[in-house]
Amino acid sequence: MHKLLLASAVLACSACTTAPVNTATNAAQAGRQYATTVKQLNQFALDESLGFTANLLPQLPRQADVLQAQTDAMRQRVALVDSVAVQLDQLSRYFELLNAVASGDDSVATGKALGQLASGFKIASSSVGDGIGRLVANGHHSSQMAKVLQRDAAPVSAAMQAVQAQLALEIGWTRANALANQQAYWQSKIEGPYVEGKTLPASWKTAWIDTLKTPDLEMLLRDAQTATDHMVQAWHALLRGDENASATFTLVQGELADVEKRLKRVKP
After folding, report:
1. Where is the signal peptide (predicted)?
2. How far apart are CA 257 and CA 264, in angstroms?
3. From CA 48, how far away is CA 215, in angstroms rounded?
4. What is the pLDDT of residues 176-188, one digit of tens each?
5. Taking the mean position of all CA atoms in its chain, how far away is CA 120?
6. The whole model's pTM is what?
7. Which residues contact 7 (CB under 8 A, 6 or more apart)?
8. Within 10 A of 8 (CB to CB), how many other CB atoms are there?
9. Which portions of the chain are predicted below pLDDT 70?
10. Measured between alpha carbons, how far is 94 from 7 in angstroms, rounded to an integer?
11. How far apart, in Å, are the Cα atoms of 59 and each of 4, 45, 54, 66, 67?
């Protein structure tokens, strides 16, 4: 029965021959940009966290257990970011090969490489890809494209969801670091001068306002998380045969370009 329905979809979709190919090309371009940008941001967030902890350690009790606890925590963060970096590299390579397939490469070697990459992702149960039959068009190339997308739907989706979870953790790290920094900053730069009763310089006003703003790094991580949400939504839309998927991939590229530009401004 399933094969009969799939065959009917093939015959009924002669007018959409290039739909899965064009949309997959957009997905591949957005996917590679996504993997590169998030990897850079993850590393920057980790570097900031390590730098903060290195500055904090001399202010903590000089005890071996304190040093060990902080070191162990940072090792866990390094290991997590490293593991996600590997997955992002795999995603980047996957989308590179997906673009090759969309461009007409239907070789056995490319198809096998795609499958090996996808099988390396953490697989979570998922219903995505159930509507992929709607993407199957009349023509070998488009049919091959749709088969690839259906086969890899769940593992690629799971890989992107893992990145979502990583970004949420990094937002938590950033908030904790910012709060500790803010407390010290508040006492020395805001509260101290204020309670002295002396005339406050213009720099005090600027410093006070700065304490009320969300840190640049947290904003970047939030925006990267939003781009990730949209990337996952677009991927699912592609697999459902949604005609709006391409537009969402274009939106993701714009969001990532903004994150990249702002990241360059805040990195030392």
Report:
1. 1-19
2. 11
3. 12
4. 777 766 666 677 7
5. 18
6. 0.76
7. none
8. 11
9. 1-21, 122-145, 180-185, 214, 268
10. 28
11. 70, 22, 10, 11, 11
Listed in sequence order, the residues at least 6 apart from 125 whose beta carbon sits closer than 8 Å to its beta carbon are 154
Angle at Cα 56 formed by Cα 53 and Cα 57, nearest 5°? 90
Measured distance CA(27)–CA(25) in Å, rounded: 5
Mean pLDDT of the chain: 78
Do 84 and 42 contact (CB within 8 A), yes or no?
A: yes
Question: CB of 143 within 8 A of CB of 137?
Answer: yes
Q: State the Cα–Cα distance between residues 113 and 107, nearest whole angstrom.
A: 10
Burial class (CB in 10 A: 0-12, 13-18, 19+), 180: middle
Return the closest-CA partner of residue 173 out of 55, 77, 43, 41. Answer: 77
Retrieve residue 204's tokens. 């005090």
Q: Pick from 3, 252, 245, 32: which is nearest to 135 by CA?
A: 245
